[in-house]
Amino acid sequence: MADRIVAARVIVTSPGRNFVTLKIETASGLSGIGDATLNGRELAVASYLADHVVPTLIGRDPAAIEDTWQYLYRGAYWRRGPVTMSAIAAVDVALWDIKAKAAGMPLYQLLGGASRESMLCYSHANGADIEAAMDSVAGHLAQGYKAIRVQAGVPGLKRIYGVHSAHGDSTQHQDRPDEGDWDTASYLRHAPRIFEAARARFGEELHLLHDAHHRLLPNEAARLGQDLEPYRLFWLEDVTPAENQAAFRTVRAKTTTPLAVGEVFNTIWDCQALITEQLIDYIRATLVHAGGITHVRRIADLAALYGVRTGFHGASDLSPVTMGAALHFDRWVPNFGIQEYSIHPNEAAEVFQWNWSFRDGMLHCGETPGHGVEIDETAAAKFPYRRSYLDVNRLQDGTLWNW
Description:
By secondary structure, this protein is an alpha/beta fold. It has helices at residues 42-57, 65-73, 82-103, 107-111, 130-143, 164-167, 184-202, 218-228, 247-254, 272-276, 292-305, 320-332, 348-351, 377-380, and strands at 5-13, 19-26, 31-35, 119-127, 147-152, 179-182, 207-211, 235-237, 259-261, 282-283, 309-310, 339-340, 352-354, 357-359, 362-364, 373-375, 392-395, 400-401.
């Protein structure tokens, strides 16, 4: 007789920041967990799961992952969107965790086996000005990183994305969003100077990345790409909002700087044209926000046909569960590019136990059955949910802009 799901529950905890976890248990005694965290909208996904999804899971065959995915996606009628797809992802990753445990193998083996022994990763070097950013790069190099994303404050702007030393850590809990300010002309003048300084100090071998965080219009994005070409970036990320995928035709036609996008994508349709028209070099859709392993595998397979590689989002607002599952996916996926790696708050290690590791600039997934991450529910209860938001951003005349 096939195994059956006998229990599923949503665990909301805030060890340093808010995380939403789904735990599924089966009649055979196996359990698996999936991440459902949507930063700033965590309780929306928790409710979607607890009030609407969990009741439909009881009695289902945990091995029927594809059917369950289709059941939750097609069956709801209301498709796509970050809340729906994050909830589906939590179920999907938990079921893959259970299937790998039932098979007695690490998840990457169940996906098809290893394509590599370790995964290149990058971390974030930030500074209120260029000098501080360069010192941060030096600190990351000392830790062994071979690839580093660099963000520096722009003169005249008080609060901009990525520069924590300038305006505090956006992971802090608050009752309403903080507001930043923005001026595109100042940024476009300043950004090339950051990478001129980086190449002058650190040479040509270091992989340098930069995130424009959706703030530029297509022609502005193309100009930035052109201006950064002499510094040979690994990638330029999120140069313009990608709801209009055709906007990347303008950018692609005018610069050879590699382009990455997709951390806010939820389905394959969000990036179909970007991939099939070869308008990007790296796709950054995450397991947690793009429907889990089942759906992101389809995105990666499509990308492979067009020479596009993966570069999964890996900010610390994705729980250790997503990092664990992502590293197993990275270990298998043939067209892997790089993995973003942000260290979780210290308190997270009290709630989650994981077996991946960082050594010599590379990430290594574990070898235990499943995706290698477990949750201590007793410890989780010690860290209740605390309201938090992502920032918002305004132009200097007060117009709300992209953050």
